[in-house]
Hints:
There is one protein chain. By secondary structure, the protein is an alpha+beta fold. It has helices spanning 44-47, 55-65, 102-116, 127-131, 136-153, 171-188, 218-232; strands at 36-42, 71-73, 77-78, 93-96, 120-124, 158-163, 195-199, 247-249, 257-260, 266-267, 282-284, 287-289, 292-296, 299-304, 311-318, 329-334, 337-341, 352-357, 363-369, 379-388. The protein folds into 2 domains: 43-232, Rossmann fold (3-Layer(aba) Sandwich); 247-388, Jelly Rolls (Sandwich), CATH 2.60.120. It is built from 7 helices and 20 strands. Helix 6 links the parallel strand 6 (158-163) and strand 7 (195-199). Helix 2 packs across helix 7 (218-232), helix 3 runs parallel beside helix 5 and helix 5 (136-153) packs across helix 6 (171-188). The protein is elongated. The chain starts with 35 loop residues before the first strand and ends with a strand.
Amino acid sequence: MPLTRRxxxxxxVARSGAQPQLVESLEPRRLLSTTIKIMPLGDSIxxxxxxxxxxxxxxxxxxxxxGYRNVDFVGSMHGVANGxxxxxxxxxxxxxxxxxxxxQLLAQLPQWAAATQPDVVLLHAGTNDIRAGQSVExxxxxxxxxxxxxxxxxxxxxxxxxxxxxxxxxxxxxxxxDDEIPSLIAGKSDGVSKxxxxxxxxxxxxATDSNDGIHPNQTGEQKMAGKFFDALKTVxxxxxxxxxxxTTYLSKLPFIGSTNEEGPVERDQxxxxxxxxxxxxxxxxGIAYNKGLGTSGNSRIDIRLNGRQRYFASDIGIDDESGxxxxxxxxxxxxxxxxxxxxxxxxxxxxxQIKFLIKGVKRLTLIVSNAGDGSNGDHADWANARVIV
Length: 389
């Protein structure tokens, strides 16, 4: 639900200095993006129906729990069909379209891929083609063209191609399609864009892993997630370890000065309201954080560094406590020179991960502006904000 609490100006300035003046001179610096964009692509088996969470939920949990925290699920779709998942605490973006055939997915894929630029695609499609009486040959051809489209957008894309799960009503047709998937992969291998076979057929029991003979139940979703996770581990970089000793979270550093539209800047919690220490655990797009700075638009934080820090990094976005509301712009300054300015971000945009070179910088400034439309719902998080030597 969007925030409805009263918003009023309650600016605070640290005793160590007066409110600093905003400096707008621009100095370009290189944005270091290590986020890996993963597109789950398919039909209702990918999308799922409420209150099921989909295999995507269990896969997201496995990735996060294993330290793969620099992944971002992408797609034009969000959530599940016909309601909300039982647990929405995961990255819910995807490209699963209930009832769609592979040729229907193919028709829209150029637009989706261009918009999201996926690095990895989890492809599970063909069930509806066989159920609609289309031939195995035509379905394989459509899947091959899906590979071609993805490669035309990103020549180095990695595609995890599934042998699809069994279907109670079309067992022979699905089995025949699955038998052709390895040959499709062999024929499309090019040495640049990796194709990985994911055998979702093997070990999937339609009697116990599905409630309706078509879609996976929770057990089936977990099995699918496990297969995708095992395949992803072979293509993703090593998981992110816990913060090394040369990393310092900004919430542990004193401020030169700070201002905030609604109450004080909060450390390791969301902005909350007008009082100090009234926030909650930070969360952006269903991703929870234990470290960071909770602010509102408008806000400014100045932090003194010693010049030995090499990088500044953070996840930025509107806290989930604002719902889809809020409109803010994040800015980063290094010694008074602007090195980053985001697009206008809303609660529906999820997180953006940023990382910049700041070697030699003595003063780091973080600013959140309200995008010119007031501050209602503008609870903005600098999640995991940190400097790295």
